[in-house]
Amino acid sequence: MTEDELVRTASRLGDQAVRDLDGGRLARTVLARLATEPVVSASTHFLRRSWLVGLAPAAALLLVLRLTLGGGPAATTSSVAAPATLSVLHELDELSAAELEVLLEILPPATDSAGHPDAASFDELDVKSLERLLRSLEG
Amino acid sequence: MSALSDDSFQSDAALVAAYRSGDERAATELVTRHAKALGRFLYGAGAPAFSVEDLVQETFFRAFRALASWRGEASFRSWLFRIGSNLRKDLYRREGGRIVLPIEDTEVPDSADPQGEAGASEMEQRLREGLGRLPRLQREVFLLRAQQGMEYDEICASLGTTPGAARVHYHHAVKRLKEMMG
Fold this sequence. Notes:
The structure holds 2 protein chains of 2 kinds. Helix content of chain A is 67%, strand content 0%. By secondary structure, chain A is mostly helical. By secondary structure, chain B is mainly α. Classes of the chains: A mainly alpha, B mainly alpha. Chain A binds chain B through residues 1-3, 6-7, 9-18, 21, 23-24, 26-31, 33-34, 37, 39-42, and chain B through 24, 27-28, 30-33, 35-36, 39-44, 49, 52-53, 56-57, 60-61, 64-66, 68-69, 105, 107, 109, 120-121, 123-124, 127-128, 142-143, 146-147, 149, 174, 177-178, 181-182.
């Protein structure tokens, strides 16, 4: 088979599949949907993406903090949790101050805060203090 | 003024501008102008025949809804095909990374020359199966070039690649399809 034959075959490919496609009917359906389904603006898309970008590392951080500070099985073996902590902390480098604030808001208190003074005071840290704390955990 | 008949002579950019000003006939003309080509591309890329119309409809819906983000640097067609390609990619992921070629897609044409038509149809089916075995970019570059007759610049705008890479993908696709189809 030559390239020309391939191109000729490709140029016919799908003719049958679209034989009954009616542009006018399709346009009416699309326009009807556009009239009834709300438009998502570009800025909303951006905000939603930003939110998701911030949420993913926040969720990962929450998991690590629960393991390291929250009295879970790993609480007594911080050396085991450390590599995971480090990998998550790198994710924070790309977060803005606003996203870090959101992160602070969504982090629940550690489950065993009484036994962990660091965790008990964690909610009271401002963004800069949190960053310093996290970087100190990085070593 | 008979806008609908005039629309067929307007550029895509002019039709987009007219639609954004509220002229729905311009949208109808854009759909009529590009629907079949887009459907053939999606079918060649692996969409089952029964879902082609739905995919075309969804592509136009998303395109019109996001028209504000089309700046006109790329052609409306390449932008539309990019949306269609991404939609097809999402569908492919949902299918678990498989391109499904349903058996009912192998149609037996009803024509005065059934043997000739069947031969062509068999070749097309073999090509489609071959395309299904190619990496996505090779498959889509080949389709945009060989099926749609796009220039490499337009292919790049559709698939977000470079002209050099598109050429390489095309030549790899042709080489592998020749091997597969004998």
